[in-house]
Amino acid sequence: MARASGYDRHITIFSPEGRLHQVEYAFQAVKKNQNMTSVALRGNDSVVCVTQKKVPDKLMDKDHVTHLYNITPNIGALMTGMHPDARALVYRAREKASKFKDKNGYEIPVHYLALKLANIGQVYTQHAYMRPYGVNVMLVSIDDEKGPSLYQIDPAGNYFGYKAAAAGTKDQEAQNALEKVVKKKIDFTEDETIQQAIGCLQAVMGMDFKATDIEVGLVSKSRRGFQRLTEEQIDGHLNAIAEKDS
Q1: How far is it, in rounded angstroms, from Cα 168 to Cα 151?
Q2: Nearest CA to 82 among 139, 138, 133?
Q3: According to the model, what pLDDT value does residue 246 have?
Q4: 217 CB contacts (<8 Å, ≥6 apart)?
Q5: Fewer Cβ in 10 A, N or C end of the chain?
Q6: Can you say whether residue 157 is alpha, beta or left, with left for phi > 0 and alpha for psi between -120 and 50 degrees?
Q7: Residue 198 near residue 217 (C-beta atoms within 8 A)
Q8: What are residue 226's phi and psi, to 5 degrees?
Q9: Strand 68-70 versus strand 46-52 pairing type
Q10: How buried is residue 218: exposed, middle or buried, by Cβ count under 10 Å (0-12/13-18/19+)?
Q11: Mind spelling out the 3-state secondary structure of the chain?
Q12: What angle do CA 124, 126, 129 make, to 5 degrees?
């Protein structure tokens, strides 16, 4: 119906049902463009984000394929969706964070950065000469006031704080799996949070990962900054999950 009447041709025109079809297509770009799924989980003293690592070409150097980025030394971002859009939005986020620190003398709070990125996304749904970013952003940080923080921003400009979040091809299945984890109301330690997040993604994808199949990002109260786990560290956690399951 939408296609026949041309309501999906322009981003600024509502359909009679009150929908913006081009914005909905941007959500589909997040789901289908990279064919990957990402999850993030907030523990008692840490936040973990896990995503699949797929090298699209055998000739490519795998070290140049990543979906984890530092916005500031202490704020990490997991980008799910179109890679060029992700890179462009990361640079916008770094610019916002840098200007905030220059002006105020302290690092931008993660909730304020999430608001600023959501504002960019929202503006891109209002102008005919722009298109939304086909990317979903998860921001993780240890906030000075609020402690472990996880925020998710979607292509329409929505942003919310989460206990656990999922994005990508199997986001609904991942959300269902994460709900079961959060319902237990357990205060997970750093290692438990990492293993629960990886375990959730393994269950959703229906496969046992190797260390090279995933990327794991971490912020923790035990050390400053956004960390990426090495393949050796990921392997250790995968072995621990396998021992628990056996």
Answers
A1: 16
A2: 133
A3: 67
A4: 48, 49, 50, 68, 76, 78, 140, 226, 227, 228, 229
A5: C
A6: left
A7: no
A8: -90, 120
A9: unpaired
A10: buried
A11: CHHHHCCCCCCCCCCCCCCCHHHHHHHHHHHHCCCCEEEEEECCCEEEEEEECCCCCCCCCHHHCCCEEECCCCCEEEEEECHHHHHHHHHHHHHHHHHHHHHHCCCCCHHHHHHHHHHHHHHCCCCCCCCCCCEEEEEEEEECCCEEEEEEECCCCCEEECCEEEEECCHHHHHHHHHHHHHCCCCCCHHHHHHHHHHHHHHHHCCCCCHHHEEEEEEECCEEEEEECCHHHHHHHHHHHHHHHC
A12: 70
Q: What confidence tens digit (pLDDT) does each residue in 44-99 have?
A: 999 999 999 988 888 888 888 899 999 999 999 999 999 999 999 999 999 999 99
Q: At what angle do helices 190-205 and 231-245 cross, to 10 degrees?
A: 70
Q: How many residues does the chain have?
A: 246
What phi, psi does 242 have (nearest 5°)? Answer: -65, -40
- Tokens 């030394």 belong to residue: 73
As a whole number of angstroms, the distance between CA 214 and CA 221 comes to: 23
